[in-house]
Amino acid sequence: MVDARTYAIALIQMRMGPDPEANFASALEHIRGAAAKGANIVCLPELFRAQYFCQREDVRLFDLAETIPGPSTEKLAAIAREAHIAIIASLFERRAPGLYHNTAVTLNAAGALAGVYRKMHIPDDPLYFEKYYFAPGDLGFKAVESGFGRVGTLVCWDQWYPEGARLTALQGAEVLFYPTTIGWHPAEKDEFGAGQFDAWQTIQRSHAIANGLYVAAVNRVGHEQGDVLGNRASGPGLEFWGGSFVADPFGRVIAQASQNGEEIVLATVDLARIEETRRNWPFLRDRRIDAYAPISRRFLDPVRSRGGE
Predict the structure, then answer these.
(1) Is residue 37 annotated as part of the catalytic site, yes or no?
(2) pTM of this structure
(3) 46 is catalytic
């Protein structure tokens, strides 16, 4: 029998200033606004408490990290209970002295910690020096029960990897949430900006199509130089391109924000649409799981792949 349930999701596209507490207060206000609009699950952008500090390597910035559970999860749990919603939030986790992760938590409507996901793919690019701060995740890819539906969370750089999307989908996720911090290097925007945004959206729409589920990507907006704890990165900074969106199981963008403003993006998850799409595009049925073992290798040497020595 087809599951006819629906539920509403909201993405909080927001701007971050130099004061982490002010950012947190803004996030709570946006969450309440999303709940008032009927959202059941609300997702915040990656590392929403601060400007994107990974634009530089600074040992003092580890002071931004916190334990999980900790102060942020306690405040978010309170508003989850108050508004009877589930919340997905990306936090800078202090796991142990000298061990830190980029971590997303899922809190259910009772305020309980329903899931913890540590970002698996850690980038190291100009102005994205995340390997300095974050150890790779070690909890694997997960789908969890939010109280409204079964959801999976991956984080930013994870969005370029089909393997993570597939493994989360295979655990029954109905929605893949991607808390994100992505933008343009100002010197590159004119030449590459449109193509970079298109590639970012296309790869995530492809996850929706290949897995027959909803994909929800939430980004921040504004120009930042990692201004936090009284210090900022040198150089031109980053311009975050917003564009938060939700794609349905057919890959259609059903809701999308602008590229420069704070917005609440609302969309309805319809489980019947997942069923319908997968019946007509039975990719899960036709997967050749007997033939995929080499995917776990870093690279397939061309000579060995042809049977050579």
Answers:
(1) no
(2) 0.96
(3) yes
